[in-house]
Specification:
This protein has 29 helices and 17 strands. It is an alpha+beta fold. The radius of gyration is 24 Å and the shape is globular.
Length: 626
Protein backbone atom coordinates (compact mmCIF):
# COMPACT_ATOMS: atom_id res chain seq x y z
CA UNK A 1 0.00 0.00 0.00
CA UNK A 2 1.15 3.50 -0.69
CA UNK A 3 0.37 7.20 -0.59
CA UNK A 4 -0.03 9.22 -3.76
CA UNK A 5 -0.16 12.95 -4.47
CA UNK A 6 -0.02 15.29 -7.44
CA UNK A 7 -0.43 18.82 -8.77
CA UNK A 8 -1.64 19.48 -12.34
CA UNK A 9 -2.00 22.75 -14.22
CA UNK A 10 -5.51 22.92 -15.71
CA UNK A 11 -4.73 26.01 -17.80
CA UNK A 12 -1.27 25.51 -19.27
CA UNK A 13 2.25 24.39 -18.49
CA UNK A 14 3.16 26.54 -15.50
CA UNK A 15 5.68 25.26 -13.00
CA UNK A 16 4.06 23.46 -10.10
CA UNK A 17 4.90 24.27 -6.50
CA UNK A 18 7.52 21.62 -5.74
CA UNK A 19 7.71 22.52 -2.06
CA UNK A 20 3.94 22.08 -1.74
CA UNK A 21 4.12 18.64 -3.36
CA UNK A 22 6.91 17.65 -1.00
CA UNK A 23 4.76 18.71 1.97
CA UNK A 24 1.93 16.59 0.58
CA UNK A 25 4.05 13.47 0.25
CA UNK A 26 5.62 14.05 3.67
CA UNK A 27 2.09 14.06 5.12
CA UNK A 28 1.63 10.58 3.62
CA UNK A 29 4.84 9.07 4.98
CA UNK A 30 2.91 6.69 7.26
CA UNK A 31 1.27 5.15 4.19
CA UNK A 32 4.63 4.55 2.53
CA UNK A 33 7.53 4.25 4.96
CA UNK A 34 9.80 2.43 2.46
CA UNK A 35 10.65 5.32 0.16
CA UNK A 36 9.48 8.30 -1.88
CA UNK A 37 9.67 9.44 -5.47
CA UNK A 38 8.75 12.42 -7.65
CA UNK A 39 8.11 13.27 -11.29
CA UNK A 40 8.13 16.82 -12.59
CA UNK A 41 7.42 18.18 -16.04
CA UNK A 42 5.97 21.48 -17.29
CA UNK A 43 2.51 21.78 -15.76
CA UNK A 44 2.61 18.65 -13.61
CA UNK A 45 4.18 17.11 -10.52
CA UNK A 46 3.53 13.62 -9.17
CA UNK A 47 4.60 12.30 -5.78
CA UNK A 48 4.64 8.85 -4.22
CA UNK A 49 5.30 7.25 -0.83
CA UNK A 50 5.88 3.50 -1.04
CA UNK A 51 5.04 0.55 1.17
CA UNK A 52 6.88 -2.16 -0.75
CA UNK A 53 4.80 -5.36 -1.01
CA UNK A 54 5.55 -6.85 -4.46
CA UNK A 55 8.85 -6.59 -6.37
CA UNK A 56 10.54 -4.47 -3.75
CA UNK A 57 13.39 -3.60 -6.12
CA UNK A 58 11.47 -2.98 -9.36
CA UNK A 59 8.23 -1.26 -8.39
CA UNK A 60 9.42 2.24 -7.51
CA UNK A 61 7.12 5.12 -8.46
CA UNK A 62 6.15 7.39 -10.14
CA UNK A 63 6.47 4.77 -12.86
CA UNK A 64 7.29 5.69 -16.48
CA UNK A 65 5.52 3.45 -18.98
CA UNK A 66 7.47 2.52 -22.09
CA UNK A 67 4.41 3.17 -24.22
CA UNK A 68 3.87 6.60 -22.68
CA UNK A 69 2.42 7.92 -19.46
CA UNK A 70 3.54 8.29 -15.85
CA UNK A 71 1.73 6.54 -12.99
CA UNK A 72 1.48 7.17 -9.25
CA UNK A 73 -0.58 4.37 -7.77
CA UNK A 74 -1.86 3.03 -4.46
CA UNK A 75 -3.17 -0.53 -4.24
CA UNK A 76 -2.76 -4.10 -5.42
CA UNK A 77 -3.82 -5.68 -8.72
CA UNK A 78 -4.31 -9.33 -7.81
CA UNK A 79 -4.53 -10.63 -11.38
CA UNK A 80 -1.49 -8.70 -12.59
CA UNK A 81 0.43 -11.84 -13.57
CA UNK A 82 -2.35 -12.91 -15.95
CA UNK A 83 -2.55 -9.38 -17.34
CA UNK A 84 1.22 -9.36 -17.76
CA UNK A 85 1.00 -12.40 -20.03
CA UNK A 86 -1.34 -10.47 -22.32
CA UNK A 87 0.90 -7.42 -22.35
CA UNK A 88 4.01 -9.45 -23.22
CA UNK A 89 2.63 -9.86 -26.74
CA UNK A 90 2.80 -6.08 -27.13
CA UNK A 91 5.68 -4.92 -24.97
CA UNK A 92 8.69 -6.35 -23.13
CA UNK A 93 8.04 -5.85 -19.42
CA UNK A 94 11.04 -4.90 -17.30
CA UNK A 95 9.80 -5.74 -13.78
CA UNK A 96 7.54 -8.28 -12.09
CA UNK A 97 5.40 -5.60 -10.42
CA UNK A 98 1.71 -4.88 -10.74
CA UNK A 99 2.66 -1.20 -11.06
CA UNK A 100 4.25 -1.75 -14.47
CA UNK A 101 1.31 -3.86 -15.65
CA UNK A 102 -1.12 -1.10 -14.68
CA UNK A 103 0.97 1.67 -16.24
CA UNK A 104 1.48 -0.13 -19.55
CA UNK A 105 -2.14 -1.27 -19.73
CA UNK A 106 -3.41 2.27 -19.21
CA UNK A 107 -0.98 3.60 -21.81
CA UNK A 108 -2.23 1.11 -24.39
CA UNK A 109 -5.95 0.92 -23.61
CA UNK A 110 -6.84 4.01 -21.59
CA UNK A 111 -9.68 3.95 -19.05
CA UNK A 112 -11.16 0.84 -20.71
CA UNK A 113 -8.34 -1.09 -19.04
CA UNK A 114 -10.07 -0.66 -15.68
CA UNK A 115 -12.55 -3.37 -16.63
CA UNK A 116 -9.71 -5.92 -16.59
CA UNK A 117 -8.51 -5.14 -13.07
CA UNK A 118 -9.19 -7.39 -10.11
CA UNK A 119 -8.01 -5.55 -7.06
CA UNK A 120 -8.04 -2.37 -5.00
CA UNK A 121 -6.55 0.82 -6.34
CA UNK A 122 -6.47 4.58 -6.59
CA UNK A 123 -4.13 6.28 -9.03
CA UNK A 124 -3.16 9.33 -11.01
CA UNK A 125 -2.01 8.71 -14.59
CA UNK A 126 -0.42 11.53 -16.56
CA UNK A 127 -0.12 11.41 -20.38
CA UNK A 128 2.48 13.94 -21.58
CA UNK A 129 1.37 13.94 -25.22
CA UNK A 130 -2.18 15.03 -24.41
CA UNK A 131 -1.19 16.89 -21.23
CA UNK A 132 -4.03 15.02 -19.50
CA UNK A 133 -4.42 13.53 -16.04
CA UNK A 134 -6.72 10.62 -15.24
CA UNK A 135 -7.70 9.78 -11.66
CA UNK A 136 -9.45 6.50 -10.89
CA UNK A 137 -10.66 4.51 -7.92
CA UNK A 138 -11.51 0.81 -7.42
CA UNK A 139 -15.01 -0.59 -7.64
CA UNK A 140 -15.95 -0.73 -3.95
CA UNK A 141 -13.86 2.18 -2.67
CA UNK A 142 -11.18 0.26 -0.79
CA UNK A 143 -8.52 2.87 -1.61
CA UNK A 144 -9.17 6.60 -1.05
CA UNK A 145 -8.63 9.52 -3.42
CA UNK A 146 -9.28 13.23 -2.73
CA UNK A 147 -8.96 16.13 -5.15
CA UNK A 148 -9.46 19.89 -5.24
CA UNK A 149 -8.90 22.85 -7.53
CA UNK A 150 -6.97 25.89 -6.34
CA UNK A 151 -8.09 29.45 -7.03
CA UNK A 152 -5.36 29.88 -9.65
CA UNK A 153 -6.30 26.83 -11.70
CA UNK A 154 -4.19 23.96 -10.39
CA UNK A 155 -5.70 20.57 -9.63
CA UNK A 156 -4.37 18.73 -6.60
CA UNK A 157 -5.00 15.12 -5.58
CA UNK A 158 -3.87 12.86 -2.74
CA UNK A 159 -4.65 9.67 -0.86
CA UNK A 160 -5.70 11.59 2.25
CA UNK A 161 -7.32 14.95 2.84
CA UNK A 162 -4.55 15.82 5.29
CA UNK A 163 -2.06 15.83 2.43
CA UNK A 164 -4.14 18.40 0.55
CA UNK A 165 -4.28 20.51 3.69
CA UNK A 166 -0.50 20.19 4.15
CA UNK A 167 0.06 21.74 0.72
CA UNK A 168 -1.02 25.13 2.07
CA UNK A 169 -2.85 25.74 -1.21
CA UNK A 170 -6.46 25.05 -0.23
CA UNK A 171 -8.98 26.87 1.93
CA UNK A 172 -9.60 25.07 5.22
CA UNK A 173 -13.17 26.22 5.73
CA UNK A 174 -15.91 23.76 6.61
CA UNK A 175 -18.43 22.56 4.05
CA UNK A 176 -21.79 23.00 5.86
CA UNK A 177 -23.51 20.11 4.08
CA UNK A 178 -20.59 17.78 4.72
CA UNK A 179 -20.74 18.74 8.40
CA UNK A 180 -24.50 18.07 8.42
CA UNK A 181 -23.86 14.64 6.88
CA UNK A 182 -21.34 13.91 9.63
CA UNK A 183 -23.77 14.78 12.40
CA UNK A 184 -26.35 12.44 10.83
CA UNK A 185 -24.21 9.49 9.72
CA UNK A 186 -21.09 9.86 11.85
CA UNK A 187 -18.89 10.22 8.74
CA UNK A 188 -18.76 12.32 5.56
CA UNK A 189 -20.15 10.28 2.63
CA UNK A 190 -18.65 10.42 -0.88
CA UNK A 191 -18.27 12.56 -2.90
CA UNK A 192 -18.26 15.30 -0.28
CA UNK A 193 -15.32 16.11 1.97
CA UNK A 194 -15.28 18.17 5.13
CA UNK A 195 -13.30 21.07 3.61
CA UNK A 196 -15.13 23.32 1.19
CA UNK A 197 -14.01 22.73 -2.40
CA UNK A 198 -12.48 19.30 -1.73
CA UNK A 199 -14.08 16.20 -3.26
CA UNK A 200 -13.62 12.46 -2.97
CA UNK A 201 -13.61 10.54 -6.21
CA UNK A 202 -16.52 8.09 -5.79
CA UNK A 203 -15.82 4.35 -6.01
CA UNK A 204 -15.96 2.79 -9.49
CA UNK A 205 -15.33 6.15 -11.17
CA UNK A 206 -12.62 7.76 -13.22
CA UNK A 207 -12.21 11.42 -14.07
CA UNK A 208 -10.03 12.89 -16.82
CA UNK A 209 -8.62 16.41 -16.73
CA UNK A 210 -7.27 17.97 -19.90
CA UNK A 211 -6.04 21.49 -20.58
CA UNK A 212 -8.87 23.79 -21.65
CA UNK A 213 -11.59 21.12 -21.42
CA UNK A 214 -14.37 20.31 -18.99
CA UNK A 215 -13.41 17.34 -16.76
CA UNK A 216 -14.98 14.06 -17.83
CA UNK A 217 -16.31 11.94 -14.94
CA UNK A 218 -17.59 8.41 -15.62
CA UNK A 219 -18.74 5.38 -13.62
CA UNK A 220 -17.27 2.16 -15.00
CA UNK A 221 -18.95 -0.42 -12.72
CA UNK A 222 -22.08 -0.77 -10.65
CA UNK A 223 -23.23 -3.59 -8.34
CA UNK A 224 -26.41 -5.23 -9.59
CA UNK A 225 -29.01 -6.80 -7.32
CA UNK A 226 -31.26 -8.95 -9.46
CA UNK A 227 -32.32 -12.57 -9.08
CA UNK A 228 -30.40 -14.19 -11.86
CA UNK A 229 -32.01 -17.62 -11.67
CA UNK A 230 -29.76 -18.75 -8.87
CA UNK A 231 -28.57 -22.28 -8.27
CA UNK A 232 -30.22 -24.52 -5.73
CA UNK A 233 -29.27 -23.36 -2.24
CA UNK A 234 -26.85 -26.18 -1.34
CA UNK A 235 -25.10 -25.93 -4.68
CA UNK A 236 -24.84 -22.15 -4.32
CA UNK A 237 -23.28 -22.54 -0.85
CA UNK A 238 -20.60 -24.85 -2.23
CA UNK A 239 -19.90 -22.45 -5.10
CA UNK A 240 -19.61 -19.55 -2.67
CA UNK A 241 -17.00 -21.38 -0.62
CA UNK A 242 -15.02 -22.07 -3.80
CA UNK A 243 -15.24 -18.42 -4.86
CA UNK A 244 -14.01 -17.19 -1.49
CA UNK A 245 -11.17 -19.71 -1.60
CA UNK A 246 -10.23 -18.34 -5.02
CA UNK A 247 -10.40 -14.69 -3.88
CA UNK A 248 -8.26 -15.41 -0.82
CA UNK A 249 -5.67 -17.28 -2.87
CA UNK A 250 -5.51 -14.37 -5.33
CA UNK A 251 -4.98 -11.89 -2.50
CA UNK A 252 -2.18 -13.87 -0.85
CA UNK A 253 0.44 -12.52 -3.27
CA UNK A 254 3.14 -10.78 -1.24
CA UNK A 255 6.90 -10.52 -0.84
CA UNK A 256 6.52 -9.49 2.82
CA UNK A 257 5.05 -11.20 5.93
CA UNK A 258 1.32 -11.81 5.64
CA UNK A 259 -1.38 -12.88 8.07
CA UNK A 260 -5.02 -12.38 8.94
CA UNK A 261 -7.02 -10.45 11.49
CA UNK A 262 -8.83 -13.12 13.47
CA UNK A 263 -11.78 -12.33 15.72
CA UNK A 264 -14.35 -14.81 16.93
CA UNK A 265 -16.67 -14.04 14.02
CA UNK A 266 -17.61 -16.11 10.99
CA UNK A 267 -16.15 -13.69 8.45
CA UNK A 268 -12.55 -13.65 9.62
CA UNK A 269 -12.64 -17.35 10.52
CA UNK A 270 -13.80 -18.17 6.99
CA UNK A 271 -10.94 -16.13 5.54
CA UNK A 272 -8.41 -17.95 7.73
CA UNK A 273 -9.79 -21.32 6.67
CA UNK A 274 -9.40 -20.34 3.01
CA UNK A 275 -5.83 -19.19 3.66
CA UNK A 276 -5.07 -22.58 5.20
CA UNK A 277 -6.56 -24.29 2.14
CA UNK A 278 -4.31 -22.26 -0.15
CA UNK A 279 -1.07 -22.30 1.79
CA UNK A 280 -1.21 -24.57 4.81
CA UNK A 281 0.93 -22.59 7.24
CA UNK A 282 -0.75 -19.29 8.08
CA UNK A 283 -0.39 -16.48 10.60
CA UNK A 284 -3.26 -14.99 12.59
CA UNK A 285 -3.40 -11.91 14.83
CA UNK A 286 -5.97 -11.57 17.60
CA UNK A 287 -6.51 -8.77 20.08
CA UNK A 288 -7.78 -9.52 23.58
CA UNK A 289 -10.26 -7.12 25.15
CA UNK A 290 -11.54 -7.13 28.70
CA UNK A 291 -15.27 -7.51 29.15
CA UNK A 292 -18.19 -9.21 27.42
CA UNK A 293 -17.01 -8.44 23.89
CA UNK A 294 -13.74 -10.35 24.21
CA UNK A 295 -13.72 -13.10 21.58
CA UNK A 296 -10.17 -14.29 22.05
CA UNK A 297 -11.20 -17.77 23.24
CA UNK A 298 -13.21 -18.38 20.07
CA UNK A 299 -10.40 -16.99 17.93
CA UNK A 300 -7.93 -19.24 19.72
CA UNK A 301 -10.04 -22.29 18.90
CA UNK A 302 -10.20 -21.34 15.20
CA UNK A 303 -6.45 -20.75 15.04
CA UNK A 304 -5.81 -24.15 16.61
CA UNK A 305 -8.19 -25.83 14.16
CA UNK A 306 -6.19 -24.55 11.21
CA UNK A 307 -2.75 -24.85 12.84
CA UNK A 308 -2.11 -21.12 12.51
CA UNK A 309 0.84 -19.34 14.05
CA UNK A 310 -1.29 -17.32 16.42
CA UNK A 311 -0.28 -14.02 17.98
CA UNK A 312 -2.48 -12.75 20.79
CA UNK A 313 -1.92 -9.31 22.22
CA UNK A 314 -3.68 -7.27 24.87
CA UNK A 315 -5.41 -4.10 23.81
CA UNK A 316 -6.00 -1.24 26.15
CA UNK A 317 -9.76 -1.27 26.61
CA UNK A 318 -9.62 2.27 28.02
CA UNK A 319 -8.38 3.89 24.85
CA UNK A 320 -9.60 7.45 25.43
CA UNK A 321 -5.97 8.57 25.22
CA UNK A 322 -6.11 7.57 21.53
CA UNK A 323 -8.81 10.07 20.61
CA UNK A 324 -6.51 12.68 19.06
CA UNK A 325 -4.30 10.09 17.36
CA UNK A 326 -7.31 8.41 15.78
CA UNK A 327 -8.84 11.75 14.79
CA UNK A 328 -5.58 12.71 13.09
CA UNK A 329 -5.43 9.39 11.26
CA UNK A 330 -9.01 9.70 9.98
CA UNK A 331 -8.41 13.18 8.53
CA UNK A 332 -12.12 14.01 8.59
CA UNK A 333 -14.59 13.92 11.50
CA UNK A 334 -15.43 10.30 12.24
CA UNK A 335 -17.77 9.21 15.05
CA UNK A 336 -17.58 5.42 14.80
CA UNK A 337 -16.07 4.60 18.19
CA UNK A 338 -14.84 1.22 16.94
CA UNK A 339 -12.09 3.16 15.13
CA UNK A 340 -10.24 3.30 18.47
CA UNK A 341 -9.85 -0.47 18.96
CA UNK A 342 -9.32 -0.85 15.18
CA UNK A 343 -6.38 1.54 15.46
CA UNK A 344 -4.95 -0.59 18.27
CA UNK A 345 -5.51 -3.82 16.35
CA UNK A 346 -3.56 -2.48 13.38
CA UNK A 347 -0.75 -1.14 15.58
CA UNK A 348 -0.28 -4.50 17.28
CA UNK A 349 -0.66 -6.60 14.10
CA UNK A 350 2.06 -4.55 12.38
CA UNK A 351 4.57 -6.02 14.82
CA UNK A 352 4.08 -9.40 13.15
CA UNK A 353 2.94 -8.83 9.55
CA UNK A 354 2.97 -6.17 6.82
CA UNK A 355 -0.17 -7.41 5.03
CA UNK A 356 -3.34 -8.61 6.76
CA UNK A 357 -6.41 -10.20 5.20
CA UNK A 358 -9.66 -9.12 6.86
CA UNK A 359 -13.27 -10.24 6.98
CA UNK A 360 -14.66 -6.83 6.06
CA UNK A 361 -17.60 -6.75 3.68
CA UNK A 362 -19.43 -9.87 4.87
CA UNK A 363 -22.22 -7.97 6.60
CA UNK A 364 -22.90 -5.74 3.59
CA UNK A 365 -22.65 -8.46 0.93
CA UNK A 366 -24.48 -11.24 2.79
CA UNK A 367 -26.94 -9.17 4.88
CA UNK A 368 -25.39 -9.65 8.29
CA UNK A 369 -26.42 -6.41 9.99
CA UNK A 370 -29.13 -6.59 12.62
CA UNK A 371 -30.84 -3.60 11.06
CA UNK A 372 -31.81 -5.62 7.96
CA UNK A 373 -34.46 -7.87 9.58
CA UNK A 374 -35.84 -4.86 11.48
CA UNK A 375 -36.09 -2.95 8.21
CA UNK A 376 -37.90 -5.85 6.54
CA UNK A 377 -40.33 -5.96 9.44
CA UNK A 378 -41.00 -2.24 9.03
CA UNK A 379 -41.56 -2.78 5.31
CA UNK A 380 -44.23 -5.36 6.02
CA UNK A 381 -46.01 -2.84 8.25
CA UNK A 382 -45.71 -0.16 5.57
CA UNK A 383 -47.40 -2.44 3.05
CA UNK A 384 -50.31 -3.06 5.40
CA UNK A 385 -50.97 0.44 6.75
CA UNK A 386 -51.42 3.40 4.34
CA UNK A 387 -48.96 6.30 4.76
CA UNK A 388 -51.41 8.84 6.28
CA UNK A 389 -52.46 6.38 8.99
CA UNK A 390 -48.86 5.40 9.71
CA UNK A 391 -47.85 9.02 10.09
CA UNK A 392 -50.79 9.74 12.39
CA UNK A 393 -50.16 6.67 14.57
CA UNK A 394 -46.39 6.28 14.71
CA UNK A 395 -45.37 9.93 14.43
CA UNK A 396 -46.62 10.86 17.93
CA UNK A 397 -45.35 7.56 19.36
CA UNK A 398 -41.87 8.24 17.97
CA UNK A 399 -41.87 11.73 19.42
CA UNK A 400 -42.99 10.67 22.90
CA UNK A 401 -41.12 7.38 23.36
CA UNK A 402 -37.74 7.76 25.14
CA UNK A 403 -34.49 6.79 23.42
CA UNK A 404 -33.38 3.90 25.64
CA UNK A 405 -29.89 3.22 24.25
CA UNK A 406 -28.97 1.23 27.34
CA UNK A 407 -32.08 -0.98 27.36
CA UNK A 408 -32.62 -4.46 25.84
CA UNK A 409 -33.30 -4.18 22.11
CA UNK A 410 -37.08 -4.90 22.30
CA UNK A 411 -37.46 -1.78 24.46
CA UNK A 412 -35.47 0.48 22.12
CA UNK A 413 -38.45 1.32 19.94
CA UNK A 414 -38.12 5.07 19.44
CA UNK A 415 -36.35 4.94 16.08
CA UNK A 416 -38.66 2.13 14.93
CA UNK A 417 -41.76 4.24 15.62
CA UNK A 418 -40.17 7.20 13.87
CA UNK A 419 -39.19 5.07 10.89
CA UNK A 420 -42.70 3.64 10.51
CA UNK A 421 -44.09 7.17 10.22
CA UNK A 422 -41.81 7.77 7.24
CA UNK A 423 -41.20 6.40 3.75
CA UNK A 424 -39.09 3.31 3.14
CA UNK A 425 -35.97 5.32 2.25
CA UNK A 426 -36.43 7.74 5.14
CA UNK A 427 -36.90 4.82 7.51
CA UNK A 428 -33.73 3.10 6.36
CA UNK A 429 -31.82 6.36 6.62
CA UNK A 430 -32.92 6.52 10.26
CA UNK A 431 -31.66 2.95 10.75
CA UNK A 432 -28.14 3.81 9.60
CA UNK A 433 -28.02 7.24 11.26
CA UNK A 434 -25.60 7.35 14.17
CA UNK A 435 -27.40 10.19 15.96
CA UNK A 436 -30.99 11.09 16.70
CA UNK A 437 -31.62 14.15 14.47
CA UNK A 438 -33.77 15.92 17.06
CA UNK A 439 -30.94 15.67 19.59
CA UNK A 440 -28.40 17.12 17.19
CA UNK A 441 -30.76 19.90 16.12
CA UNK A 442 -31.08 20.88 19.77
CA UNK A 443 -27.33 21.54 20.14
CA UNK A 444 -26.52 22.94 16.69
CA UNK A 445 -26.40 26.68 16.13
CA UNK A 446 -29.61 27.88 14.40
CA UNK A 447 -27.45 29.98 12.07
CA UNK A 448 -25.72 26.79 10.90
CA UNK A 449 -29.07 25.07 10.36
CA UNK A 450 -30.32 28.02 8.28
CA UNK A 451 -27.12 27.90 6.23
CA UNK A 452 -28.10 24.41 5.04
CA UNK A 453 -31.07 25.84 3.16
CA UNK A 454 -33.30 22.85 3.84
CA UNK A 455 -30.70 20.23 2.94
CA UNK A 456 -31.42 16.86 4.55
CA UNK A 457 -28.64 14.25 4.84
CA UNK A 458 -31.21 11.44 4.73
CA UNK A 459 -31.72 12.28 1.04
CA UNK A 460 -28.46 10.42 0.26
CA UNK A 461 -30.08 7.10 1.20
CA UNK A 462 -33.16 7.89 -0.88
CA UNK A 463 -30.98 8.71 -3.89
CA UNK A 464 -29.03 5.47 -3.48
CA UNK A 465 -32.16 3.36 -3.16
CA UNK A 466 -33.71 5.03 -6.20
CA UNK A 467 -30.56 4.27 -8.21
CA UNK A 468 -30.80 0.56 -7.41
CA UNK A 469 -32.23 -1.83 -9.98
CA UNK A 470 -33.58 -4.05 -7.18
CA UNK A 471 -37.23 -4.47 -6.34
CA UNK A 472 -37.06 -6.28 -2.99
CA UNK A 473 -36.40 -4.11 0.10
CA UNK A 474 -33.39 -6.10 1.35
CA UNK A 475 -31.49 -5.65 -1.90
CA UNK A 476 -32.37 -1.96 -2.00
CA UNK A 477 -31.00 -1.54 1.52
CA UNK A 478 -27.84 -3.47 0.64
CA UNK A 479 -27.33 -1.35 -2.46
CA UNK A 480 -27.65 1.83 -0.39
CA UNK A 481 -25.04 0.47 2.04
CA UNK A 482 -22.64 -0.29 -0.82
CA UNK A 483 -23.02 3.27 -2.08
CA UNK A 484 -22.71 5.04 1.28
CA UNK A 485 -21.98 3.06 4.46
CA UNK A 486 -19.32 0.68 3.09
CA UNK A 487 -17.01 3.18 1.31
CA UNK A 488 -17.72 6.12 3.61
CA UNK A 489 -17.55 4.44 7.00
CA UNK A 490 -16.33 0.86 7.08
CA UNK A 491 -13.59 1.03 4.45
CA UNK A 492 -12.44 4.46 5.61
CA UNK A 493 -11.98 3.02 9.09
CA UNK A 494 -10.01 0.03 7.76
CA UNK A 495 -7.82 2.12 5.46
CA UNK A 496 -6.93 4.93 7.85
CA UNK A 497 -6.36 2.84 10.98
CA UNK A 498 -4.21 0.27 9.15
CA UNK A 499 -2.24 2.73 7.03
CA UNK A 500 -1.51 4.87 10.09
CA UNK A 501 0.88 2.03 10.98
CA UNK A 502 2.09 1.10 7.49
CA UNK A 503 -0.09 -2.03 7.44
CA UNK A 504 -1.86 -3.13 4.26
CA UNK A 505 -5.35 -4.55 4.84
CA UNK A 506 -7.04 -6.65 2.15
CA UNK A 507 -10.72 -7.75 2.32
CA UNK A 508 -11.24 -10.80 0.05
CA UNK A 509 -15.02 -10.80 0.56
CA UNK A 510 -15.11 -7.55 -1.44
CA UNK A 511 -13.67 -9.18 -4.54
CA UNK A 512 -15.98 -7.67 -7.15
CA UNK A 513 -16.73 -11.08 -8.63
CA UNK A 514 -18.13 -12.25 -5.31
CA UNK A 515 -20.12 -9.02 -4.94
CA UNK A 516 -21.63 -9.46 -8.40
CA UNK A 517 -22.45 -13.11 -7.79
CA UNK A 518 -23.98 -12.48 -4.37
CA UNK A 519 -26.11 -9.68 -5.77
CA UNK A 520 -27.88 -12.18 -8.02
CA UNK A 521 -28.83 -14.47 -5.13
CA UNK A 522 -32.43 -14.58 -3.90
CA UNK A 523 -32.75 -12.46 -0.74
CA UNK A 524 -33.68 -15.46 1.44
CA UNK A 525 -30.33 -17.08 0.60
CA UNK A 526 -28.76 -14.29 2.62
CA UNK A 527 -31.38 -13.47 5.26
CA UNK A 528 -34.06 -15.87 6.47
CA UNK A 529 -36.09 -16.02 9.69
CA UNK A 530 -34.15 -13.04 11.01
CA UNK A 531 -30.75 -14.72 10.52
CA UNK A 532 -28.28 -12.91 8.28
CA UNK A 533 -25.28 -14.23 6.35
CA UNK A 534 -27.16 -17.50 6.01
CA UNK A 535 -25.37 -18.78 2.90
CA UNK A 536 -21.94 -17.67 4.13
CA UNK A 537 -22.42 -19.54 7.39
CA UNK A 538 -23.66 -22.67 5.65
CA UNK A 539 -20.83 -22.51 3.11
CA UNK A 540 -18.22 -22.72 5.90
CA UNK A 541 -20.08 -24.80 8.50
CA UNK A 542 -18.23 -27.96 7.52
CA UNK A 543 -14.86 -26.26 8.10
CA UNK A 544 -15.61 -24.14 11.15
CA UNK A 545 -18.05 -26.40 12.97
CA UNK A 546 -21.67 -25.85 13.93
CA UNK A 547 -20.81 -24.40 17.35
CA UNK A 548 -18.69 -21.61 15.86
CA UNK A 549 -21.28 -20.82 13.20
CA UNK A 550 -23.99 -20.54 15.86
CA UNK A 551 -22.04 -18.09 18.03
CA UNK A 552 -23.79 -14.81 18.74
CA UNK A 553 -22.40 -11.83 16.83
CA UNK A 554 -20.33 -9.54 19.06
CA UNK A 555 -19.63 -5.85 18.80
CA UNK A 556 -16.28 -4.13 18.48
CA UNK A 557 -17.01 -0.78 20.06
CA UNK A 558 -15.62 0.60 23.32
CA UNK A 559 -17.98 1.49 26.20
CA UNK A 560 -18.24 5.20 25.48
CA UNK A 561 -21.35 5.54 27.65
CA UNK A 562 -19.45 4.36 30.72
CA UNK A 563 -16.41 6.48 29.84
CA UNK A 564 -18.46 9.65 29.79
CA UNK A 565 -20.03 9.06 33.19
CA UNK A 566 -16.85 8.51 35.18
CA UNK A 567 -14.90 11.08 37.15
CA UNK A 568 -11.39 10.58 35.73
CA UNK A 569 -10.28 10.43 32.07
CA UNK A 570 -13.77 11.40 30.97
CA UNK A 571 -13.68 12.36 27.26
CA UNK A 572 -16.79 14.52 27.61
CA UNK A 573 -14.95 16.79 30.02
CA UNK A 574 -12.42 17.56 27.27
CA UNK A 575 -15.14 19.72 25.75
CA UNK A 576 -15.21 21.99 28.79
CA UNK A 577 -11.63 23.09 28.22
CA UNK A 578 -11.64 23.13 24.41
CA UNK A 579 -12.29 26.21 22.30
CA UNK A 580 -12.22 24.38 18.97
CA UNK A 581 -15.85 23.27 18.88
CA UNK A 582 -16.97 26.53 20.49
CA UNK A 583 -15.25 28.65 17.84
CA UNK A 584 -16.44 26.53 14.90
CA UNK A 585 -19.79 28.36 14.82
CA UNK A 586 -21.68 25.09 14.46
CA UNK A 587 -22.89 24.62 18.02
CA UNK A 588 -24.96 26.28 20.68
CA UNK A 589 -22.43 26.32 23.53
CA UNK A 590 -25.13 26.53 26.18
CA UNK A 591 -27.00 23.54 24.72
CA UNK A 592 -23.86 21.37 24.53
CA UNK A 593 -22.88 22.25 28.10
CA UNK A 594 -26.41 21.38 29.24
CA UNK A 595 -26.30 18.06 27.37
CA UNK A 596 -23.06 17.14 29.13
CA UNK A 597 -24.57 17.93 32.54
CA UNK A 598 -27.81 16.08 31.81
CA UNK A 599 -25.99 13.01 30.55
CA UNK A 600 -23.55 12.84 33.47
CA UNK A 601 -26.39 13.23 35.96
CA UNK A 602 -28.41 10.45 34.31
CA UNK A 603 -31.23 12.76 33.19
CA UNK A 604 -30.54 12.10 29.50
CA UNK A 605 -29.24 9.25 27.34
CA UNK A 606 -27.22 10.91 24.59
CA UNK A 607 -23.82 9.19 24.64
CA UNK A 608 -23.54 8.89 20.86
CA UNK A 609 -24.47 12.51 20.24
CA UNK A 610 -21.87 13.68 22.77
CA UNK A 611 -19.28 11.36 21.25
CA UNK A 612 -19.95 12.96 17.87
CA UNK A 613 -19.18 16.38 19.32
CA UNK A 614 -16.05 15.03 21.03
CA UNK A 615 -14.71 13.54 17.79
CA UNK A 616 -15.61 16.67 15.82
CA UNK A 617 -13.67 18.73 18.34
CA UNK A 618 -10.73 16.30 18.09
CA UNK A 619 -10.84 16.59 14.29
CA UNK A 620 -10.68 20.39 14.48
CA UNK A 621 -7.83 20.25 17.00
CA UNK A 622 -5.68 17.87 14.95
CA UNK A 623 -6.54 19.21 11.48
CA UNK A 624 -5.67 22.78 12.38
CA UNK A 625 -2.71 22.00 14.59
CA UNK A 626 -4.40 23.02 17.84
Amino acid sequence: MCGIAGIFDLNGARDVDRAALKRMTDALAHRGPDGEGFYFAPGVGLGHRRLAIIDKEGGAQPFHAQSGGVLTYNGEIYNYEKLAQRLKHKIALKTRSDTEVLAEGLSLEGADYLQNLRGMFAFGFYEPGAHSLTLARDRLGERPLYYAETNDGFLMFASEIGALAASGLIDLSLDPRAAADYFFYGYVPDPKAIWRGVLKLPPAHWVRFERGKTPRLERYWRPVFANGGALAYDEAAELLRAQIDDAVKAQMISDVPMGAFLSGGVDSASILSSMAQAQGAVTACTIDFDGDDDESAAARAVAKKFAAVHYEDEANADSTALIDRVAAAMGEPFADASALPSYQVAEIARRHVTVALTGDGGDEIFAGYRRYPFFLGEERTRRIIPPPFRAALFGPLGALYPKLDWAPRPLRAKTTFQALAQSSAQGYAAAVAINLPSRMEAILNPDFTRMLGGYRPSSLIAEAMDASDAEDPLSRAQYADLMTWLPGRMLVKVDRTSMAHGLEARPPLLDHRIVEWAGALPPDYKLKHGTGKRILKDAFASRLGADHIARKKRGFAPPIREWMRRERNNPALRLNASQHWRESGLFSERAVDAMIRDFRSGRAECAQELWSVIMFDAFLRTARGG
